[in-house]
Amino acid sequence: MNEEFLKISQIINEALKNKKPIVALESTIITHGLPYPVNLEVAKACQNIAIENGAIPATIGIIDGVAKIGLDDDEIDFLAKNSNRCFKASTKDLGFCYANKLNAGTTVAATLFLARKSKIDCFATGGIGGVHRNAEKTFDISADIHALSSYGGVVVCAGCKSILDIAKTIEILETYEIPVYGYKTEEFPAFYSRKSSFKLQLKANDVEEIAKAYVFNEKLGLTSSILVVNPINEDDEIPYEQVSKIIDKAILELEEKGIIGKEVTPFLLERLSNLSSGKTLNANKSLIYNNVAVASKIANEINKIKLIKLDN
Fold first, then answer.
1. What is the pLDDT of residue 300?
2. Which residues are known catalytic residues?
């Protein structure tokens, strides 16, 4: 890949050459998901958690129009401090960012695309985008769904973002043949809550199962990612009934203000934090840390399987 468009850091390049496990991390959580300085704290903590669990973190973002695989400390610090001036880039926006030399956080879709372009298997995020409430009227469905059906890899999340329509999101994941594995759970988690009452068809009790399934799918040439839904730790969850009321109130405010498009998620996340007296913010931190740990373990297992096959 021409470094004029996409630049892989020296650390990640060496990890790829030496066949070390790598976990990709998104940057919209830095630019659009969390306020400063919490965003910087979380970004650095995610990197440390990946390292503690035996993986090399590759935070992905856009600096001066160039997609960077493995942002360094200065670049992460820059995005965190200048988040209000950063673009939110999905896959379709990458060329626009390059042409205009923009700084941007990459969404799940863009991060997954860039990670796979760089031959990284695993990616950890908080929650995926999906089908918005009232999508039958607005047709507001996240590009993350198309990305998950197209680019492969393993994506670990705590379900879809809490502001979405869980039932419709599960249906569209099924339609696009995206396998959804519940990690030690039989229910689709509801982001801030461990359970949503929506049952899953697939359950994985350990990371080895997920790694084996992924390597098998890859050998077959299947294009869909494996989506691993990993419930938030029990001590940090917010009961579904409690958080649902807060979400309903925030969505009503959203509709009254006429906010649409890319501004929807940042507005709702900020309102949820305010309405919950910071509980959703703490839960958000907990679940992303948990997802990074699980993704790092999966990356290790995938790496082991691939190294064994190379030796044979």
1. 98
2. 26, 161
